[in-house]
Amino acid sequence: MGTDHRDLTTGKSPPDRAALRILVWFLSPQPFVESCELVPDTYEPQSVHVVFDTTRYTSAVEAASLNVRWYIDSAFRFEYTESTPDGTERSRQWDRRPRLRTGITPALQKPGRPDEPADVAVLRYYSLPRIPINAVIGVLADIEQDDQIGDGLIG
């Protein structure tokens, strides 16, 4: 077994700064990204904040963003938010986190939609890999499919 780097008081691993920098490197030049930055700064990043170019969306989306947290134990959290001109906001989250006692992550949680059965809302543990770029591609594909983005995010 490897070393457990989690904080004993919170149960969280520290951010994987190298993985966060790789995600910025990968996402910044993409044509669907308006801006991509490390938050709060490049020296000690805690997350990646991505703002999407909403001209690619077929639906009326005024703003769309993705916040990514990636930890050294390969746990992660993606939070996607979009808003429409009428002020409606929709948020979705994907995450993988280990159980504190066992260290086993049973499933990747995928946000459910009100009209879909609960079993559709849970992806198997290996659905998204522990490699940051592959995981973000999977999340982008899910966003693209749900939002029917015209020119596509990843294609």
Quick overview of this protein structure:
This protein has 155 residues and is α+β, with helices and mostly antiparallel strands.
Number of β-strand runs? 7
As for the number of domains, it is: 1
Helix fraction bin: 10-25%
What is the ordering of alpha helices and beta strands? Answer: HEEEEEEEH
Taken from the alpha-carbon principal axes, the silhouette is globular
Distance between the amino and carboxyl termini: 38 Å
Separate helix tally: 2
Over the alpha carbons, how many angstroms does the gyration radius reach? 16 Å
Specify the structural class.
alpha+beta
**Strand order within the widest beta sheet:** 1-2-3-4-5
Give unreliable regions as ranges.
Answer: 101-109, 116-127
Q: What do the pLDDT scores average to?
A: 75
**What about the largest sheet?**
5 strands, antiparallel
Please state roughly what percent of the residues sit in beta strands, choosing from under 5%, 5-15%, 15-25%, 25-35%, 35-45% or over 45%: 25-35%
What does this molecule look like?
The protein is of the alpha+beta class and 155 residues long. It has one domain (17-147). It contains two helices and seven strands; from the N terminus they run H-E-E-E-E-E-E-E-H. A five-stranded antiparallel sheet has the order 1-2-3-4-5, with helices on one face. A hairpin with a 5-residue loop joins strand 3 (63-70) and strand 4 (76-83). 25% of the residues are buried.
